[in-house]
Amino acid sequence: MKTILTVWNTSSRGKSETLKKFALLLTVKFPSHKIKFMHPSVIKSRGDIRLVIEINGKTIAIESQGDPNTQLENRLSEICKTYNPDIILCSCRTRGQTINAVDKIASIFSYQQIWTSTYQMDSNHSMANQLKAKHILELLQTIKLI
Fold first, then answer.
1. Is 11 within 8 Å of 119 (Cβ atoms)?
2. Global pTM?
3. Checking CA distances to 50, which of 15, 73, 85, 127 falls within 20 to 30 Å?
4. Distance separating alpha carbons of residues 37 and 79, to the nearest angstrom
5. pLDDT tens for each residue of 84-98
6. Are the beta carbons of 4 and 98 closer than 8 angstroms?
């Protein structure tokens, strides 16, 4: 079943970093992957990414920019229309237009939804985000989506 997994939390809580770490982990775990689209062309420590990748015949899209007033709904719609991904991973805030955007895209394009948040720690944010990325991958593999 087509699935959209959303990492949601308030501002500056590691949503984008978690998705970037997930993208890197995914490419290492599945070295025979095929990149269909990537912006920017390198996953950097700062900034957001959009990645569409094919693994074992499944198309996976990652959209890390989930801030309000960034046209999340339009970007997700464009990804769906262009690539028809089996799985979308995106980020959004905990209320408002970004949640509405994810809900609307899930409804229009018939995606089941999984909601998760980042881990909260007083320190070691990068380590927590790496672990969350690993747990997301394990979840998707355990429920046989990847």
1. no
2. 0.93
3. 127
4. 10
5. 999 999 999 988 899
6. no
107 to each of 80, 83, 92, 118, how far by Cα in Å? Answer: 12, 17, 16, 24
- Which amino acid, one-letter code, is at 124? N
Whose structure tokens read 């895209």?
Answer: 105
The helix or strand, by DSSP H or E, that contains position 72, with its residue range, turns out to be: helix 72-83
In angstroms, the CA 127 to CA 88 distance is 23
Tokens at residue 57, please? Answer: 């015949």
% helix, strand, coil for the chain, step of 5: 40, 25, 35
Q: Give the CA distances from residue 40 to residues 14, 52, 63, in Å, rounded to whole numbers and listed in that order.
A: 19, 12, 12
Tokens at residue 14, please? 């590691």
Buried b (16+ CB within 10 A) or exposed e, 26-48: beeebeeeeeeeeeeeebeeeeb
Q: What's the rounded Cα separation, in Å, for the pair 57 and 15?
A: 27
* Dihedral-angle region of residue 107 (phi above 0 means left; psi in -120 to 50 means alpha; beta otherwise): alpha
Q: Which structure tokens are listed for 88?
A: 């979308």
